[in-house]
Design goal:
This protein has helices at residues 2-18, 54-65, 84-96, 100-108, 154-158, 194-207, 220-230, 249-255, 266-280, 285-292, 294-303, 305-313, 333-346, 349-359, 368-371, 394-400, 417-420, 422-432, 434-438, and strands at residues 24-25, 45-47, 49-50, 112-117, 120-127, 135-140, 171-176, 213-218, 236-242, 380-384, 404-409. Helix 10 packs across helix 14. The strands form two sheets. A nine-stranded mixed β-sheet has the order 2-4-5-7-6-8-9-10-11, sandwiched between helices. The chain has a domain at 2-52 and 101-247 and 360-438: Rossmann fold (3-Layer(aba) Sandwich). It is an alpha/beta fold.
Length: 439
Amino acid sequence: MDRMAEDINQDRRRLLAAVTTGVVVAGAAILLPSLPSAAASSDAIHPFHIHVPKKELIDLRKRLAATRWPDKETVADQSQGAQLAKLRGLVQYWGTDYDWRKIEAKLNALPQFITNIDGTDIHFIHVRSRGKNALPLIISHGWPGSIIEQLKIIGPLTDPTAHGGSAEEAFDVVIPSLPGFGFSGKPTGTGWDPDHIARAWAELMKRLGYTNYVAQGGDWGSAICNSMARQSAPGLRGIHVNLPATVPPEAAAALGGGPLPAGISDQERAVIEALMMSGKNGNLAYFTMMSARPQTVGYGTTDSPAGLAAWVLVHPGFSHWSYGADPENSPTKDDVLHNITLYWLTNTGASSARLYWENGPHGSIIFAAAQRTSEISLPVAITVFPEDVYKPPETWARRAYPNLTYFHEVDRGGHFAAWEQPELFSAELRAAFRALRQA
């Protein structure tokens, strides 16, 4: 870690020497860089530094202390949403003992930058490996995640010898904040769907000077990777996805109320039935609401931090999260609050939800036909994590992706796999792209 930190510092000093104007994010009230626009008329890349004003943190604590709570749920489980006692305990900790400055310092210790693409400022982390011939990798997060999800995999990917890998398996890592998320700008018009983001990511990698690279993503990141591969983005050699788009048309029809397909295997039947049950249990309620009325969702998530936390935690990816009961279990209580606080301080409850609305005409991100996976000719790698929102069978994956080069089911991890199992996740990426390096 000391070697990596020194390399990061050298990289930052070199870039800061070349570009002397920094960028300061001033929290929810001022989510604009100190520059008029990071690179409004050029492809310039500027260093980025975070400093949230103290008054924003004081306001957050005041709002948390003044939370008006509903009455307790009338069931003993999470079927009605975030449970009052658990959420109230988390919010109490958030408003008293939680320290945003810790994650702010951790982020500022990394090389962060901002550039303007298609009129929107794009924030990203860029960590180069010391390894020779490191493979450039761009990683995309989803909702309700952020760049916070990927922080624990930066070390294993850029310095594999310290984490069970070999020096030849190193990556240069690029982790952007999606438009409308975190420290990236908020689109002021329509059109920023996964296809548009995919084109922006290709432009970003071009600006960084990468002519050969790979891409990874889960959740919305998976849809973005599918788009990049389908577009044959210049320089892109292959993708790795978790939560892939593998559901075939006949299974999609069954999920829409049609009969179960004839001749399916027991495993395929089990996956369809599990997805049906998930829908009946209301696990996609958040998806429906943000796809239809993201602006309405934004009012509550913007005005009430407790409301924002409850909305984030309704995601089925958090269904097994124990609210930090086990302090050694990742993501920790602070990890999750870092992520939620990032949404709060950047006032991105509404702007992040709009990605669902933008994607509406394209259909589900797990349906093969909706994602047009048959048009992808580049190598595709898939890792299936057992606690994700669905577990695609290999038979579906091979039908969906004509050039599937890697498929592996691991024994632990869920929707936020990079967050939950960073060492395993990193090992999967090394294995998934090994054949591409050799080629």
